[in-house]
Amino acid sequence: MDALFAPNHPLDQSVAVMAARVRDRSDSLSAQELVGAALARIEACNADLHAFLCVTPEIALEQARAVDAAVQAGQDPGPLAGVPLAVKDNLAVPGAPLTCASRILANYTPPTAATSVARAVAAGACVVGKTNLDEFAMGSSTENSAFGATRNPYDRTRVPGGSSGGSAAAVAAGLAPLALGSDTGGSIRQPAALCGIVGVKPTYGRVSRNGLVAFASSLDQVGPFGRTAADARALLQAIEGPDDADATTRAMPSVAASTPPSLAGLRYGTVREFDVSQVPGGADAEAAVDGVRARLRAAGATAVDLSLPLVTGSIPVYYIVAPAEASSNLARFDGVRYGHRAHDANSLESLYARSRDEGFGTEVKRRILIGTFALSSGYADAYYKRAMAARTALRAQFDAAFKRCDVLISATTPTSAFALGEKSDDPLAMYLCDVLTVAANLAGIPAVSIPCGRDSRGLPLGLQLWGPVGSEGRLLDLAAALAAETGLGYEAPTGYGGPA
């Protein structure tokens, strides 16, 4: 075990250094060696963390051999050459199961790759496994998986966040330098915060959703996890861009790194409705954000006090829009075309009902029922249409805010990681874990979570940066500048990976 996490281990370097070493024929590091190192760490640690549902050594080593062959032939295998990549198990990887952590898809293997996965592999990344999630990405703790909960590497009695908790735990523990997740209401940023790493929710339309199993189509976005802003940027740059297979994608300015911004003159917004100091357990998170604000002011940045009143309604709006779209998207899982099929059903109606009852877990059923009700005759106007109108008005409030400031700053989550099982019997308490994240999805704007120190128990906290449409590159530049200014960043959990 000690050798797996020895100082200066190649997996604990930055993604740029790893890939550069693989591309350099004079260096002794090969893609196959990097992948082998990741697979060894996964084998040693996954039983404790349960970050991965499926490990894919054959796929990863085949991809690594292709990278090494390109290097030997004098070709450039890409900016992610040989870098091990974990993929959330709601994204298609050919030859690997695609379960969405649900029994209803337990035996499904997709024939084609998600566009985001294909682009990462084309850039040289090697897929080492599929990570755990809340079933169909519905949850905030990765406890709703049909195959068991993932544990937080900083405290294995606590959750890693969700729904992309497996991806976040894998990166935080150093099992893979990069991971893909999806974010519908905070499912990248919230686990990134609870696991002390960087997570990016892109602008809606920057990254293709092709090959992502749909939860709520107007909210879902694929995005990266990394230990640093530079690492996350490398993966986002590889997967961004229009895709003919997803009509919602569009061309935007690249997220490629620019000159690090000066904090002097930066206008950062403090939104009154984002203050969590009065939330039970929220004092530590708000204090950590206040510390960053103080450093910004000392560096010459200017605070802008803002109010976004509709943010206070973002949770109820989200929990009408998202379940309504989930109800529609999950109607395809009917026991006929693919997925779990109930045995001995004596009618078409009973086949549908029994297959779905046996295949879906409690939280998925709850959201399907909520969504079906919100769309039902006589209620759609009262619920869904009003929620969509509120969403439009919320977007307008964000647009107005960004005319007054360059970036909004808040905590990512009201508290640090909570104990496994603590909120399992209280769905509303679980939903409120996303009170600081869902608004970005409703508005379609980008947001980045970066490490923001520790709470009084030594658990990671996250700082969230919000920007206008298409500003991911600027947000990542600012994230890097803040890390340099404050010294805050990834700190490996005891017994796991080292510095990136």
In short:
The chain is built from 15 helices and 11 strands. It has 500 residues and is α/β, with parallel strands linked by helices.
Describe what this molecule looks like in 3D.
The protein has 500 residues and is α/β, with parallel strands linked by helices. Among the domains are: 2-263, Amidase signature (AS) enzymes; 312-386, no CATH class. The chain is 37% helix and 12% strand. Helix 2 packs antiparallel against helix 3, helix 9 (314-329) packs across helix 11 and helix 9 packs across helix 12. The longest helix has 24 residues, at 381-404. The mean pLDDT is 95.
Pick out its properties.
single chain; alpha/beta; Amidase signature (AS) enzymes; eleven-stranded mixed beta sheet; 37% helix
> How many H/I helical runs?
15
Distance between the termini: 19 Å
What share of the residues does DSSP label as strand, in percent? 5-15%
Biggest sheet, strands in spatial order? 1-3-2-4-6-5-10-11-9-7-8
Structural class: alpha/beta
N-to-C SSE string, H for helix and E for strand: HHEHEHEHEHEEHEHEHHHHEHHEEH
Helix content: 25-40%
Shape: globular
Determine and state the CATH class of the domain at 2-263.
Alpha Beta
Give the CATH architecture of the domain at 2-263.
Alpha-Beta Complex
CATH topology of the domain at 2-263: Amidase signature (AS) enzymes
- How many strand elements? 11
Mean pLDDT: 95
CATH superfamily of the domain at 2-263, by name, is: Amidase signature (AS) domain
Poorly predicted runs are: none
Radius of gyration: 21 Å
Major sheet: size, sense and barrel closure? 11 strands, mixed
